[in-house]
Structure formats: structure tokens, C-alpha cells
Amino acid sequence: MHPFDAHVVKTAAADPHPLWTPDDGPLPSLYLSHGAPPLFEDATWMDQLFAWARSLPKPKAILIVSAHWEMAPLSVSSTQANTTPVYDFGGFDPRYYRMRYDTPDSSDLASLLLSVLPDTETVYEHRERGLDHGAWVPLKVMYPDADIPVLQMSIPTHDPSRLLALGERLRPLREQGVLVIGSGFMTHGLRYLTDYSLDAKAPGWSAEFDAWAADALARGDVDELAAFRNHAPGMPYAHPTVEHFTPLFVALGAAANPEAPVTTTVDGFFLGLAKRSFQAA
């Protein structure tokens, strides 16, 4: 049995997932390393992500920022139900191009999003754009029933201070049962890998960057994280382009206190890349 098929069978037998209520308080904000279709072949990683989702109340809606949609002005994916996902990857098993993640209409979430943004913020809805793989791949593992409204928001800048401010705008959504997620990868130097086995030893630049990030996150040192281009060891190999790291600042900005230590939920390496993920209260 394919590992993802086994995951579906196992998760279908799980106990019902209680829906968020105001008594639960604000949901945390998340930063997750999302993988690509090979995530569906890693049973341990899928178990970790599903257990993480089940450790939280079931959100009423999910707002996700993915590394794979860089666009300004700020834009959102289609609010219509069952919009075809974006298959923005190549060279994988044909089964992955037939996968769907048919979520409910997210118009109410879009209205909530607009209510917390300034009136001067222009937001475009791309009516034909579904979720890209930085969104639907991890969510298909975490919430396989696809019964939660999901809206993807573009990442309009890579300036940490502006992304922190954007996250702060999103903070009130957490009090209404919305799960705010920044989706990237803690290290993403794919072009510098020499061993593509799933359990490959982490290159020095990947391990060093991950250790630096873990330390800064544990200390709540947002200034150090924001200076990653110049301060982080392993650069620029860990992030030859920065879009897989910067969604972290949206997640931190949405936290009640961006400078509080985060809770690491997933660590370790995949293809030698750091898959560190965390939640912020």
C-alpha cells in the first residue's frame, strides 16, 4: 500500500476532532516545512503533521501563506468551493497530478480577512487559482477530510518587518477560530544537495542554519531572525532564494507575543533539508 493510502486508512479510524469554540481561546499561529509530493511517501512525517493537527482544536477556517505564491499587491486564492489545486511541481508520480483537495467555500473567511486589513490595502481575488502545493500538500496530510474552508494569501514582500506587521494584522483572526499558517521550509538549498535519499545526512550549511534558527526561536530573538541574510550560518546555501524562510515572519507576527519562545513541533531533516516547524501562542 502506498504510504499516503495507509495514512488515509489510519486517520479515518481516528476519534472525531472537536471543533474550535471561543472557550478554547485563540488558536496558535504555525510555521510548517511543507515538503512536496515526497511528503506523501514519508509515513513518519505524515504522522507528525497529523498528530500536530489533532493536538489543536479543529479550526473553523485556515488562512495560509505559502512560499510558492509571491505576489504584490496582496492577493488571495479563489473563494469558491472545490477549486482545482495548482500542480506546481514536476517529475513526480502521475498519481500526484490527480490528487484533489476539495475544500468548502471560503467567502466568509475572505470577508474576515478584509475586516482586519486597513481600508487602504488592495486585495485581489484570483478566481481561478486554487491552493498551490505549499498549501494543499501539508493540509491534505493534516486535515485529510478537506472539510475546513481554506484561503491562501500571497506573500507580497520578503521584508521581515513588513511581514511581521502583516501577521500582526491577522492576529485577531486567531480569536475567531482561524488557523494562520506560514508554509515554507527551514532550509531549502535544493540546488546544493548531492544526496537525494530521504534519510540523507544534512549538509553542514543545512544543519548549521537549522541550529541557528532553533536557538533564535527558543530565545524569541526576532531581530536576529530578521537579520538572517547576514547573520545566519550556512547562507546563502540554506536559502539561495528566501521565499521558504520568510513565511516564518507572518506566523511570528500573528503570535500574541512574537518575542516569546515558540514550541517546536517537528524537527529533523528530509533529503538533508531541515523540516523544523513550530507553533506560536
Structure description:
- The relative contact order is 0.20.
- The protein is of the alpha/beta class.
- A hairpin with a 2-residue loop joins strand 8 and strand 9.
- The protein is built from nine helices and ten strands.
- The radius of gyration is 18 Å and the shape is globular.
- The model has no long low-confidence stretch (mean pLDDT 97).
- Major sheet attributes: 6 strands, mixed
From N to C, what is the helix and strand string? HEHEEHEHEHEHHHHEEEE
In angstroms, what is the radius of gyration? 18 Å
Overall strand count: 10
Strand order of the largest sheet: 5-2-6-1-10-7
Q: Estimate the global geometry from the Cα principal axes.
A: globular
Low-confidence stretches: none
Q: Helicity, in percent?
A: 25-40%
**Approximate strand percentage:** 15-25%
What would you call the structural class?
A: alpha/beta
The oligomerization state is single chain
Q: Could you report the average pLDDT, rounded to the nearest whole number? A: 97
Summed up, the helix count is 9
Q: How far is the first residue's CA from the last residue's CA?
A: 38 Å
Looking at this protein, list some descriptive labels.
globular, single chain, 281 residues, 10 strands, two-stranded parallel ribbon, 9 helices, 32% helix, 6-stranded mixed sheet, alpha/beta
